[in-house]
Amino acid sequence: MQQNAVYETGVVKEVLVELSERKAAAIAAGVDPERIVLDPGLGFAKESEHNWELLASLDELATLGQPLLLGASRKRFLGSLLNEQGNPRPVMERDDATLAVTALAAAAGVWCVRVHDARGNTDAVRVASAWVEAKP
User: Fold this and answer.
1) Which tens digits make up the pLDDT trace of 6-33?
2) Residues acting as catalytic residues
3) Number of separate domains in the chain
4) With CB atoms 3.0 to 4.6 Å apart as the test, which of 7, 46, 56, 130 could cross-link to 11 if both were Cys?
């Protein structure tokens, strides 16, 4: 799948186009727009830098007008970031990084995250929500 991680005009632009086309196709097929959730596909045909670009562009993805779903939990790009002496952090040791992504995603208005550690991520969402709600 990584051989498909080629984006001629930029990952954010191309993912926006693809999601927009998929949304239009679903609506044309009779799917109620209220039932459509969009997922930018973190980790799928994307290198680490692509995933970070998408995460940094959640506001642009939100312009499509649908709830966003992210699946960053324990992904390879987190293991690469937490590289220790040339070795990616093992999968089962990536939950703290997942919590950080979850909190930031929640603060950015992401509708849902797919995670392995539900309790810890629920706490992260609660913290992020309280933070956002406390802003003047």
Assistant:
1) 899 999 999 999 999 999 999 999 999 9
2) 75, 114
3) 1
4) 7
